[in-house]
Amino acid sequence: MSGGFFAGRRPTDLGVHQGRLKACPKTPNCVCSQSGDDKHHIAPLKSSRLKGAALIERIAEVLASWERTEIVTRREDYLHAECRSRMMGFTDDLECFWSEDEQVCHVRSASRLGKSDFDKNRNRVEQLRSALKTG
Hints:
single chain, 2 helices, TATA-Binding Protein, alpha+beta
């Protein structure tokens, strides 16, 4: 995904480390299902009919239909996508990680730049959750 001035640099520390996604920064422009504080916490993704690689596959299908969204990394248990804003090209990183132990898909969505995101990351995860329920 071509980035502009507001895209920021792609983080090099994303992914799953010891069963966890990267922690959110102190700023309010991040949500993560593995976060321990209410400000950043969001429920993990679940599906009554899809698990593991099948759920990651379905998430990839949903994200492929979204404008300005590009899947950067995809494995059977992990997906990283970049989501770019329409107006100024700000880039957010969306990660999904299937935890076999917990039988849920952990999710993290975070802005690369700035402090506030006007709940864009939280809304993105809820939009994904809704698409998984209806699709």
